[in-house]
Amino acid sequence: MKLLDAYVLARTKRRMRRIRMAVTTLVCAVLFALLLLGSFMAAGIEKSSQLVKNYGYNQHYLVTARSNLENNDLGKTQDTIKNQMDAELRLRKITVTDAVRSDASYQSELNRRSALALNQKYQTLAAQFQARTLRTYKVAHVYTFNEVEAMATNSDNRVTTKNPDPFLALQTQQVNSGSSAMNSSRDPFASWNPLIMRADSGLVRSLVQPGQTLDWRPGQPYPLLVPYSFLPQLAGKNLTDLPTKQRVTMYRQLVQHYTGTTLTYCYRNDAAQAQLTAALQYNKTLQVAKDAATGPVATAACAPLDQTALKRVGIIPSVQDLAARPLFVDPLSAPVTQYVQFKIVGYVPTQDITSKDLLTAQITGANNWGPASQPAIMPQDVYQKIPLFENDNVPRSNGAITPATLFFDFASRTDQKRFIASGCTGMACMQGSAWTLASFGNVGVNFESYVYHIKLILLWAAVVFGGIAALLLMTTVGKIIADSRQEIAIFQALGARQRDMAQVYLLYALLLATNALLAALALAVLAGLYIAHLGNNSVSAELTYAVGGFTSPLHANLFGVEPMWVLLIVVAGLVAALLGAGLPILMNSRRNVVRSMRES
Amino acid sequence: MISLRDIGRTYSTKGHADVAALQHLDLSIYDGELVAITGPSGSGKSTLLQLIGGLDRPTTGSVVVDGQEVHKLHGAQLAAYRNKTVGFIFQFFYLQPFLTVAANVEIPLMFAQYPRHRRQQLVSEALQSVGLADKADALPQQLSGGQIQRVAIARALINQPKLILADEPTGNLDSKNSDSIMNLLTSIRETRGTTIVVITHDSGVAARADRSIAIADGRIA
């Protein structure tokens, strides 16, 4: 029998069972539409998630490796160092007592030497670890990243464009009214402590804004990458409560406005800062006591203090006070106060821990810089050219040095995953010289789990909805064919072969399934486009915010078509219909013609 | 043309005793004969027709039609026999309600895989021969009972079979239409030389046959 003839006969079945066919078509269409809609959404989400590759660090498969050496070895190291220091004091004929060990300079020196020792030990371990990693995995680059200790740990070293030395004003207030001054509305950076860090240029080059550069020549401001969250503070705005779309717009304006801006930073080392604090305190005491005999110490904005005046008021011990010489002298005790200029050349996407949106918070989690949640970053090679900072790159008396973090840039996601899996987890990281490994910066990697879970949900939905639709299709087609015994018998009486009957009814089943699938496609496309219409803007805004794509917004589309998925769903629907038709056709066409005619 | 030898057909029903619809029946029908088979309900008339038409298979005996051992045919051969050698006319017409008259008549040609233009030609001729050329595009429900049966006859004739088996073709028709149908069948027999076997309760119809065979209790009475 010719296919066209089979179609003519099959078409009449559809008309004969119009209501049942319509109901089945509708229900199947809705179920298949849900399935297709899921595939459209999944494809849209997956494609949109790919867009983040154009932002931030997404070109890299980075892993941060941080040593837990300090946690594990500090006590042991300090015991050894204490013994050395005690021996030095004994050589100087100083009796070591508990009081001596409690002395501030003793503790300061202990901290400094501990940090130095740990740092040396760390360097050795890091070199071994790096060599081992490079032997085992294919790594494109190894970057390092260091915290700039002297500039970072003191929360009062602030960056501003408004007040050339905000420290002065703040310090004055702090002395007067305690820590509440830290929240003073006079200083937009009051609640922000920028940690200035140094990282290899290669690691942060993708964060540089168009038209800006990480290169530096003497006399120019130092290039600096600041966290996006710094911008509202520079502008004195609070964007936290704004809707994401509006927040993105605001950030875009701020990025355009502040890119290339020079920031003036009043750099003051520990010694200078200690002197300033003491001088301010002294001046305040004078005010309270109304004793102007020795006069106040002059504290001009970001200017070195007059050392003679400090000696006169006793802030710097005089020669006569040499007996009070500390047990250990801080090697960097010379005070340094001077302006330093930075230029904003780019922005660091950082973990948004304040976001009310869970998705944004999760996505930005890929940008967690470990010790610093909101770091400002200076290129390592620039940093090394600045003698001022070089001098400070030594463990200080106020605490241990933070060892450099290694950034391994793997050639593939597979290697990256394998490497992370080889690291420690949970409490294991607190023992021995374990390394804490975590993927870094690649927002797309964070998306992987989302996309995976979405796909998993869709797979189950496919099994459920597709299964129901297929069963419905099978039973309906089966029932209709079973009800067509007489018709089949008549056709057989007129000379139809089993093959002809199969052709007619399989075609009929395919017609039914095709109708349902066409309707499903139309429904799913309409629903998908509508959902995309509703959600694209907000999702785009969220993603743009999450990846920091303020200058080139990310345009997500929740509606996408993955032809292979659509094809699979369509084929599954057609196969279900054919399977549903197959058995009843076989049974009916083998029945006795007379019996079929008589029963019907 | 038709030779039935020692035909027996027994129906087995679960939980009931076997029923013998036909027993030791011998019958010969010659080319171009118009034979009426009569008998009371349940006598085995329809079973006899179905055995000749290859719709059923005898429990015993042989059915030979136009030299073909029908009782031995299976699958495609049996389908070809039903399609080409035999034309069926049923009491209840069994037309496809949503196909036009022309399409209904065309069905056997579809199974015979005739080319489209040839089919249209044959359909046109068949409808003309039954006087329904102007009803080709009508649907069955738009026709009278007599016209519907004419369509069924056209469908039976379309493959120009050597044998037409009509199971009470006038059973659902009034006397005027019955006459008309019988006239048509007689005319077909005369013009084409087709052998026609008609089952009927109607003595008027039987009277118009060349031969009338009465069956009772599965045997020729």
Describe this structure in words.
The complex is a heterodimer of chains A (600) and B (221). In chain A, the strands form two sheets. In chain A, strands 8-4-2-9-1-10 form a six-stranded mixed β-sheet. Chain A has 600 residues and is of the alpha+beta class. About 8% of the residues of chain A have low confidence. Chain B has seven helices and ten strands. Chain B is globular. The chains are: A alpha+beta (600), B alpha/beta (221). Chains A and B meet through helix 1, helix 18, helix 19 and helix 21 of A and helix 1, helix 2 and helix 3 of B.
List the helices and strands and how they pair.
The complex is a heterodimer of chains A (600) and B (221).
Chain A: H1 3-16, H2 18-51, E1 61-67, H3 69-91, H4 98-102, H5 104-136, E2 139-147, H6 149-152, E3 159-160, H7 166-177, E4 195-199, H8 201-204, E5 222-227, H9 230-235, H10 244-258, E6 262-268, H11 270-289, H12 307-312, E7 337-348, H13 358-364, E8 375-379, H14 380-384, H15 387-392, E9 405-410, H16 413-421, E10 435-440, H17 443-482, H18 485-493, H19 498-547, H20 563-590, H21 593-599
Parallel strand pairs in A: 4-8, 5-7
Antiparallel strand pairs in A: 1-9, 1-10, 2-4, 2-9, 3-6, 6-7
Helix pairs in contact in A: 1-19, 2-17, 2-19, 2-20, 3-5, 7-11, 10-19, 13-19, 17-19, 17-20, 18-21, 19-20
Chain B: E1 2-11, E2 19-29, E3 34-38, H1 45-53, E4 60-65, E5 68-69, H2 75-85, E6 86-89, H3 101-111, H4 116-129, H5 145-157, E7 163-167, H6 175-192, E8 195-199, H7 203-207, E9 211-216, E10 219-220
Parallel strand pairs in B: 3-8, 3-9, 6-7, 7-8
Antiparallel strand pairs in B: 1-2, 1-4, 4-5, 9-10
Helix pairs in contact in B: 3-4, 3-5, 4-5, 5-6
